[in-house]
Amino acid sequence: METGKKNGTNVSRLYQRYLKLGRGFSAHTVEAYMRDLDKLANYLSMEHKDVLDVKLEDLHHFSATLVDMGIGARSQSRILSGIRSFYRFLVMDGFLKDDPTELLEFPKLPDHLPEVLSPEEVDQLEAVIDVGGTWEGHRNRAIIEVLFSCGLRVSELVNLKLSNLYLSERFVRVMGKGSKERLVPISERAITELDYWFSCRNEMVIKPGEEDYVFLNRRGSHLTRTMILIMIKKYAALAGIQKTISPHTLRHSFATALLEGGADLRAIQAMLGHESISTTEIYTHIDMTTLRQEILEHHPRNMSQNL
Q1: Active site (annotated) includes residue 170
Q2: Looking at the chain, which terminus has fewer C-beta neighbours within 10 angstroms, N or C?
Q3: Measured between alpha carbons, how far is 304 from 298 in angstroms, rounded to an integer?
Q4: Predicted pLDDT at 11
Q5: Is 161 labeled as catalytic in the residue annotation?
Q6: Which of 265, 261, 285, 286 is nearest to 276 (CA)?
């Protein structure tokens, strides 16, 4: 992207540096942001316009071209979100006075509620794991319980370190997206499963440099996300769970259980490590059948009818 120069300064390169150093994004994430920004640059090049001269009308036309290209609503939203981030950076750094994306409308996304497991179904998942003297069984049960009890992303789980566990205080320090740390409470049950796993782990030969990782494979190295996915799908099949689940399902189940138990949405946001409360609102949901029944039973208008 070569457009967007002011006084000889390439603003796109400054933005790329901001994403990497200011936001702490990975090289892969930065590349994705810049790739989406290139789509806007290509469009503006055909229109003979510079990114610093863009108006809201130009962005609406650009959004229409995304539809013409057959790009789905979710991908459109991602692209436009990245462009909004770019223009907010330009305003923040003084390249622009006004943000042309302020009133930019995003495509309406279809409602999508991911699969969720009840605590009873998580128990079923753990019950099929053979822990009869096998270190692998104790490890896998601890993995599932920590994912469900702490609501971790699978990337956070595989990178979890012993030095980040404060089990006597019942907290875990998690390194989340953008290198942002947060403290997450951990349940007594998860601590118990970890203790069983640590008894086995202490007997293992651990590869040099891997000593601080909580979860290890048979070669003494830390696990990968793919290993966790395969493991959970295997136990779901053994437990007879028909839902399409992944490690992320346990994170969603954690949030849903808290919400249905009456936890404040802001507290859930903090525990999940979401930067925006809107992400938490999309991520969590309440069983609408249960909600409907609660309203019918407890709304004062309905209660007065039964007196």
Answers
A1: no
A2: C
A3: 10
A4: 87
A5: no
A6: 265
